[in-house]
Here is the input.
Amino acid sequence: MTEPPLVVITDSDLPGDEPERILEAAGLRVRRASCRTAEDVAEAARDATALLVQWAPVTAPVLARLERLRFVSRLGIGYDMIDLAAATARGVAVANTPDYCVEEVAAHTIAMVAALARRLPVLDRAVRDGRWSAAGDGAGALRPSKATVAVIGFGRIGSLAAAHAAALGFRVVVHDPNVAEEAVRAAGHEPAGLAPALAAADIVTLHVPLTERTRHLLNGESIARMRPGVLIVNTCRGGLIDEGALAGALATGHVAGAALDVFELEPLPADSPLRGAPGVLLTPHAAWYSPDSLAELPRRAARQIADFLGGRTVTSIVNPEYAAAREGGDA
Here is the structure.
């Protein structure tokens, strides 16, 4: 008798066993591992048909060793830990979980935008230090109707964050080369190229995937071209910002404040200069979280494995070109 396909959960710090229950109910075998390195993944998943991945690296050499692999489901929206080109070339479908926390991240983003615009981190610290000066410590606070928010990336989260910002009265400019300018205008915002958007912004908020093209999108050069006193928000991926360049710009005051939920290294190292930088609001990669999103994420990520292996359509596959490679390999 042929064994059912094996699904390996490479890593997960989410509570509960709902993925196992969903996958086993679909007639699949499940193995849970605690992978941290690429070699861990290769060893744990050598006979897997599908992977459920949170943070473990699924690299090209790993994929080459997983000869039975057909599908990778990401516990989350970003998929920069998976070598998408290598997966596509091998005919392996990759799917993320794109909308389990859209509301949460957009709300977290706009909370950070408002906190910086109204100088809340600085005012809070001032009160705790015994000062009581709205105009002194609140210097630089913005009136929304006279300030511009640049939204870089206009996908599910970016577009909702833009709508929230506009509802507060901010002028919103949007940069996303993958979205038609007409769609941006139809939403009530102004389309712009990257350089003009950054130059116009009082506040910049990032909502793009981390790729080789977007890594350190905000670096010493691009930050220097922003207007003095700019504020920066990142709830997307830490690698979008050169943290050394940001820390330097915060020290000089060219960047007046930053609100960061994601970092190049997580947890944020104890010696990171961002910890002590003035006007900085830090949260622990928490923008995605609510009890609702926590419950929804593993459920959706597991169900799409069951759907794919059951021959049903999975709409969140991010590399539809995989099918041509698989057909070519099967010919």
Q: What stands out?
A: The radius of gyration is 22 Å. Residues 291-309 form the longest helix (19 residues). Residues 102-282 form a domain with the Rossmann fold fold (CATH 3.40.50.720).
